[in-house]
Amino acid sequence: MTAIMEWTEQQVRTRISLSADRQFVYLYTPLCGTCKMTDRMLSVVLAIMPNLPIVKSNVNFCPQLVQSWQIESVPCIVSLHQHRITDKRYRMQGVDDLLRWFQDTIK
Questions:
Q1: For 74, phi and psi rounded to 5 degrees?
Q2: What is the pLDDT of residues 74-105, one digit of tens each?
Q3: CA distances (Å), 30 to each of 38, 58, 76, in order?
Q4: Under a CB-based contact definition with an 8 Å cutoff, are residues 76 and 90 in contact?
Q5: How far apart are CA 42 and CA 55, in angstroms?
Q6: Would you list the DSSP string of 23-66?
Q7: Does the structure show a pLDDT above 60 at 1?
Q8: 45-70: pLDDT as tens digits
Q9: Cα–Cα dist 1/42, whole Å
Q10: What percent of the chain has pLDDT over 90?
Q11: How many CA atoms lie within 13 A of 36 on its CB side?
């Protein structure tokens, strides 16, 4: 299974400021059971889409992002394009659903 690279709040902010390309940030907490399931689903998605531009960040260590992006709960996958949030996904219904969402979002 492919692991998602973990980034700090500063690394995420820098990445977003430097690239206008489509990007995804997966926000989670380590003690969240649903986040652990989402992690496993994302590993499968990455096996199918190895070039998916996604990183993850622990919300406990990125309070400014959580506040400025108005994150309501975790897990959350934030879709960014042109330095702006284009979508936030909170419900992870399954690998096929997530895969379809990523494919539709990247188009």
A1: -120, 150
A2: 999 999 999 899 999 999 999 999 999 999 99
A3: 11, 7, 13
A4: yes
A5: 11
A6: EEEEEE-TT-HHHHHHHHHHHHHHHH-TT--EEEEEGGG-HHHH
A7: no
A8: 999 999 999 999 999 999 999 999 99
A9: 9
A10: 88
A11: 4
Rounded to whole angstroms, what are the CA distances from 27 to 9, 49, 61, 80? 11, 19, 10, 13
Q: Give the helix, strand, coil percentages of the chain, each rounded to 5.
A: 45, 20, 35
Angle at 104 between CA 17 and CA 68, to 5 degrees: 35
Sole residue written with tokens 């989402």: 38
Provide the token pair at 48: 């199918």
CA pair distance 13, 48, nearest whole angstrom: 27
Q: How far apart are alpha carbons 1 and 47 in whole angstroms? A: 7
> pTM value?
0.94
